[in-house]
Amino acid sequence: MRSVLLIVTAVVFISCSSNRYAATNKDYKRQAKQLAKEIKKYPLEGSRKDWVGTTNFGLRKPNIVVIHHTAQNSCDQTLKTFTLPRTQVSAHYVICKDGKVHHMLNDYLRAWHAGIGSWGNLKDVNSSSIGIEMDNNGFEPFTDQQINSLLVLLDTLKTRYGVPQANFIGHADLAPVRKNDPNVTFPWELLAQKGFGLWYGDTTAITVPPDFNPIQALRIIGYSVKDTTAAIRAFGRHFLKQDNYTEFTEGDKKILYDLMMKSE
């Protein structure tokens, strides 16, 4: 089992900084070693007689990327929040307004960023996702430096893990009842042009079928429709840049239909 320990410790990201986070960096390393010990326990006592260890395995890979805004006033405030045990929240990456990227957790480990929610049939989003926090109080535009750094990071993640284009989403998309991030100024169309997330095309020539069901279409895209009002609002925030969207117009139905066809 020594090889398993080496695999785990090799992928653990440890900051080399000796700054004020030296203590929490040390605690990160301690927790990572503890996880390695858990893996080393196998085979468990009582099962060793019949233990047959497969030679075909690897680390779990993330398959979805969730983008947040921090709803805090600075990068430093967010970094502090994510290094306090009592907060019980974290993310893999934090991108500051000046474009600086803090990698806070190894991509193969499970961050606590998504909370209760779902995307399509995926119910435990934390277990298969990477969380990216954008330093933003929830009302201001995102800086060019942030977006540029984000695009570079997303390209790296998509290439490294094979994340499907449709699986780049916002926190509000998976938790429409609870969350509204990233805010309506977030450039989803630009991200989609670069291959990260879905966007609609020219809808001028689209004819929506008479039996088209907008709520069913939201579900096909990935939204939970248990609370239809919240799902509609999340759609409006993401694709129409409207914070209090409540009702589909005929033009909006064309957009939704186009997105549904891209999702199928």
Describe what you observe in this structure:
With 264 residues, this protein is an alpha/beta fold. The chain folds into three domains: 2-40, no CATH class; 64-183, Peptidoglycan recognition protein-like (Lysozyme-like), CATH 3.40.80; 214-263, no CATH class. The chain contains nine helices and five strands, in the order ααβαβββαβααααα. It has helices at residues 2-11, 22-40, 75-82, 144-161, 171-174, 188-193, 214-221, 228-239, 250-263; strands at 64-69, 93-95, 101-103, 129-134, 168-170. It has a five-stranded mixed beta sheet with strand order 3-2-4-1-5, sandwiched between helices. β2 (93-95) and β3 form a beta hairpin. α7 packs parallel to α9 (250-263). The chain is globular. The protein starts with a helix and ends with a helix.
Write the layout of secondary structure elements.
Elements: H1 2-11, H2 22-40, E1 64-69, H3 75-82, E2 93-95, E3 101-103, E4 129-134, H4 144-161, E5 168-170, H5 171-174, H6 188-193, H7 214-221, H8 228-239, H9 250-263
Parallel strand pairs: 1-4, 1-5, 2-4
Antiparallel strand pairs: 2-3
Helix pairs in contact: 1-2, 7-9
